[in-house]
Design a protein that fits this description.
443 residues, alpha/beta, Rossmann fold, binds adenosine monophosphate, DEAD/DEAH box helicase, ATP-binding, DEAD_box_RNA_helicase
Length: 443
């Protein structure tokens, strides 16, 4: 099937061609004509399937006729995080470059005044996180009675983040006669309930079975003691010659700690998590997209749904607490038909969570053994195919090596300037701050 078969106008087809897409993805094939025909949609699709364009394109088409009144947006898209909201806005900008539609982003961390000014001018497409939208509504700055199209994106994430009451409240403020599109990567019972309450005879589109991982991702796991994870991470990066990756940690303080450690070892690393100011989050994400940062250390909230063009690797430095977060984390790679790679580092504390991941991705996971200088602090889980890290000998008896010391986040930057060097370069001059514990990788 071609984009020309979907019922989109010439100006949109031109914008699609300029973006470089030649054929619609399966979800686009199914969803676009249904939305153009006015149907509600219940879409079960992972990120990476092209689901954003599946609603953005027909929305642009349908909204091209008509004009927005002040403070009365004509469409509303709810996103769980600011980053996702910004990403959807970028999609509108790309595909809508030949249209005259006004777009506003209502997300936390940005100026209320600017957002209000935009609303005053009349908005065709409003993309919002639930909290900020409710805030502006309660201040009387916005009316939702003109919304003709309503999109609830990443509904399962909204559920995890406790946004369902907000969504229910927002839905009650919308006109009864409207088109509603709901997308979710997974289909827990609560989301099913939400769909039956707010969707009118929806077309159900399922492009991948629930809670499975994309087949374009090579997934590997490694058992390693918690105290040796940072060294293991560096060793894998070096031996696999990994050019760039998102590295997920479960806790914000671990994100910051790992970022300092990686930077201390000369990697171009940056941190991204929900406690950072929005401007800092935008900056680090842009630097990663511009390849000024090669390793993005991130928490789940900050990185969900983020679309980095052709990202080759994802690391789970910690095993996520929810197996479904694993699906989302590794879904940052292997997107739009590219091959991706995902690693999980498993220490004893991660074992219980890892068992849950095995339930959804067991068959796809392959064990990698580190060399004998690493210790493992727990028993093996599954008899699996062994894939040695390149250049290392697998299956040797494990010894406990001296523990590495990561550069302390409290101390001044370490090693001395210039701190950032190409990862393949040998560090030059003495490395201050490690004493006799200089890791073998840096010798
Ligand atoms: P999404 O699932 O919306 O997060 O999209 C995942 C990625 O697929 C994004 O990088 C899109 O730019 C890309 N994409 C969307 N539609 C197509 C298409 N028809 N052909 C190729 N790539 C696409």
């Amino acid at each position: 099937m071609n984009f020309t078969d979907l019922g989109l106008s010439a100006s949109l087809l031109k914008a699609i061609e300029d973006v470089g897409y030649t054929t619609p993805t399966p979800i686009q094939e199914e969803v676009i004509p249904e939305v153009l025909n006015g149907h509600d949609i219940f879409g079960v699709a992972q990120t990476g399937t092209g689901k954003t364009a599946s609603f953005v394109l027909p929305m642009l088409e349908k909204l091209s006729k008509g004009r927005a009144k002040a403070r009365m947006p004509r469409s509303l898209i709810l996103e769980p995080t600011r980053e996702l909201a910004m990403q959807v806005a970028e999609n509108f900008e790309h595909y809508g470059k030949n249209s005259k539609l006004n777009l506003a982003l209502l997300i936390g961390g940005e100026s209320f005044v600017d957002q209000q000014k935009k609303l005053e001018r009349g908005v065709d497409v409003l993309i919002a996180t639930p909290g900020r939208l409710m805030d502006l509504f309660e201040r009387g700055k916005i009316l939702l009675t003109d919304v003709q199209m309503f999109v609830i994106d990443e509904a399962d994430r909204m559920l995890d983040m406790g946004f369902i009451p907000d969504i229910e409240k927002i839905s009650s403020l919308l006109p009864k006669k409207r088109q509603t599109l709901l997308f979710s990567a997974t289909m827990p019972a609560e989301i099913k309930k939400l769909s039956s309450k707010y969707l009118n005879n929806p077309k159900e589109v399922i492009v991948s079975p629930q809670s499975t991982t994309a087949s374009t991702i090579v997934q590997k796991f490694i058992h390693v003691a918690a105290s040796e994870k940072r060294r293991a991470l560096r060793q894998i990066i070096e031996s696999e010659k990994i050019p760039s990756a998102i590295i997920f940690c479960n806790r914000k303080k671990d994100v910051d700690f790992l970022e300092k450690s990686m930077t201390g070892y000369g990697y171009l690393a940056g941190a991204l998590h929900g406690d950072m100011a929005q401007s800092a989050r935008n900056q680090v994400l842009q630097a990663f997209k511009d390849e000024k940062i090669k390793f993005l250390i991130a928490s789940d909230v900050a990185a969900r749904g983020i679309d980095i063009d052709k990202l080759p690797y994802v690391f789970n430095f910690d095993v996520p607490l929810q197996a479904e977060d694993y699906v989302h984390r590794i879904g940052r790679t292997g997107r739009a038909g590219n091959i991706g790679h995902a690693f999980i580092l498993i220490s004893k504390a991660d074992e219980k969570n890892f068992q849950n991941i095995l339930k959804i991705a067991g068959g796809a996971l392959e064990e990698v053994k580190l060399d004998e200088s690493f210790s493992v602090d727990q028993a093996k889980t599954l008899p699996q195919k062994k894939a040695p890290v390149r250049g290392k000998s697998p299956g040797r008896p494990q010894k406990t090596p001296p523990q590495e010391k990561a550069p302390s986040p409290q101390r001044p930057p370490n090693p001395p300037q210039p701190r950032v060097q190409k990862q393949s370069e040998e560090p030059k001059g003495p490395i201050i701050g490690f004493g006799d514990d200089l890791p073998s990788f840096m010798r």
